[in-house]
């Protein structure tokens, strides 16, 4: 997002334009009018990453316009970022300005915060990190009340935890999440909470089983698991799988089996194209799947995975790219209809939007 686009006074009209665009994309499928879930107008983004730019013998937070890596936009604060990030930015800058050990060849800073108030900082260097750096970093982490990760080529030093802890409320229950450094998490926590609530309601209380593809750190898995008999969930990223397993255990969710497979690999397994050792001991035929939940990357579902979802009575689909969502619905429209749809404004002041649909068999 360009800072020039940030204008809370225009938020309502921008959101209306996104709604109209989603209506037009889903019009060929006779979709109902989308439910719209707005965002806070500022301080909504829980993650931020800044390059550092050296000027007048000091390093400054910097961003760049798309396609231009040579003209920095120097920042003292970042109004779309969480209040916690804006509190930490000047404190961290003062710390590196006062310390040659902390500032020497520091080139990038990453912030990860949560609605629960936790914070994790990652400092990236073009030099080896030594004992002197670690001693000062430990003092800094204690002073700021954060967890901290130092990164340099081939080395990673963790001070405290290498994850942030989040708490999200869904249907009156608090779910606690471990969000690892470097792994994907939803950037807009307030809207993420609304997405979870909508998916929970759209799925409804079922007496059968759920297949979940692309489960990540278990963001949707935790609340949706309370709505079904049992869940088979898949994810390919090792760090996300480990976080999901920790989140399941930490929340006492015991009806989920998680396997490290891609959606394409699970499709092959369910079609009995080939066996997978990672499915050893799991009886796929013991599941009575009634619903499938998908939250794919921007490219959407590949054609084979899309065909796999056709088998299910209900397809609950969260998308970060409405264009590929529409393409997938087109492939499924001869057997399924759009019963519900929603717009989630994860990314205010940009053209990006998150969408959700519930498809049910005709």
TrEMBL record:
EC main group: transferase
The keyword Nuclease is assigned to this record: no
Active site per the UniProt annotation: 320, 320 (nucleophile), 354 (proton acceptor)
Gene Ontology CC terms: cytosol
InterPro entries: MeTrfase_TrmA_AS (IPR030390), MeTrfase_TrmA_CS (IPR030391), SAM-dependent_MTases_sf (IPR029063), TrmA_MeTrfase (IPR011869), U5_MeTrfase_fam (IPR010280)
Ligand binding (S-adenosyl-L-methionine): 186, 214, 219, 235, 295
GO molecular function, one term: rRNA binding
Catalytic reaction equation(s): uridine(341) in tmRNA + S-adenosyl-L-methionine = 5-methyluridine(341) in tmRNA + S-adenosyl-L-homocysteine + H(+); uridine(54) in tRNA + S-adenosyl-L-methionine = 5-methyluridine(54) in tRNA + S-adenosyl-L-homocysteine + H(+)
Keywords: Methyltransferase, S-adenosyl-L-methionine, Transferase, tRNA processing
Superkingdom of origin: Bacteria
Enzyme nomenclature, EC number: 2.1.1.35
GO aspect biological process, one term: tRNA methylation
Family to which this protein belongs: Belongs to the class I-like SAM-binding methyltransferase superfamily. RNA M5U methyltransferase family. TrmA subfamily.
Described function: Dual-specificity methyltransferase that catalyzes the formation of 5-methyluridine at position 54 (m5U54) in all tRNAs, and that of position 341 (m5U341) in tmRNA (transfer-mRNA).
Name of protein: tRNA/tmRNA (uracil-C(5))-methyltransferase
């Amino acid at each position: 997002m360009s800072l020039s686009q940030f204008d809370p006074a225009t938020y309502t009209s921008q959101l209306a334009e996104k709604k109209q665009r989603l209506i037009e994309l889903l019009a060929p499928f006779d979709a109902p009018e989308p439910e719209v879930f707005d965002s806070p107008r500022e301080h909504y983004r829980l993650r931020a990453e800044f390059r550092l730019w050296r000027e007048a013998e000091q390093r400054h937070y910097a961003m760049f316009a798309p396609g231009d890596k040579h003209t920095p936009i120097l920042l003292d604060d970042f109004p779309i970022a969480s209040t916690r990030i804006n509190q930490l930015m000047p404190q961290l800058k003062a710390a590196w300005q006062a310390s040659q050990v902390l500032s020497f060849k520091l080139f990038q800073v990453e912030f990860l915060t949560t609605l629960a108030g936790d914070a994790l900082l990652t400092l990236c260097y073009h030099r080896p990190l030594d004992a002197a750096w670690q001693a000062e970093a430990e003092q800094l982490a204690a002073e700021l009340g954060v967890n901290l990760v130092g990164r340099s080529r081939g080395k990673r030093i963790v001070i405290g935890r290498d994850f942030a802890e989040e708490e999200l409320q869904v249907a009156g229950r608090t779910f606690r999440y471990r969000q690892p450094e470097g792994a994907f998490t939803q950037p807009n926590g307030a809207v993420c909470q609304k997405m979870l609530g909508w998916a929970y309601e759209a799925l409804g209380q079922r007496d059968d089983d759920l297949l979940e593809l692309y489960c990540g750190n278990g963001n949707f898995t935790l609340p949706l698991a309370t709505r079904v008999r049992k869940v088979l969930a898949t994810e390919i990223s090792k760090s996300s799988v480990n976080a999901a397993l920790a989140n399941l255990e930490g929340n006492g969710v015991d009806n989920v089996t998680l396997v490290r497979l891609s959606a394409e690999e699970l499709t092959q397994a369910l079609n009995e194209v080939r066996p997978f050792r990672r499915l050893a001991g799991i009886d796929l035929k013991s599941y009575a799947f009634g619903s499938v939940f998908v939250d794919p990357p921007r490219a959407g579902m590949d054609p084979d995975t899309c065909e796999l979802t056709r088998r299910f009575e209900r397809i609950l689909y969260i998308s970060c790219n409405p264009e590929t969502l529409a393409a997938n619905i087109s492939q499924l429209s001869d057997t399924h209809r759009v019963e519900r749809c929603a717009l989630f404004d994860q990314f205010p002041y940009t053209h990006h939007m998150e969408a959700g649909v519930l498809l049910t068999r005709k």
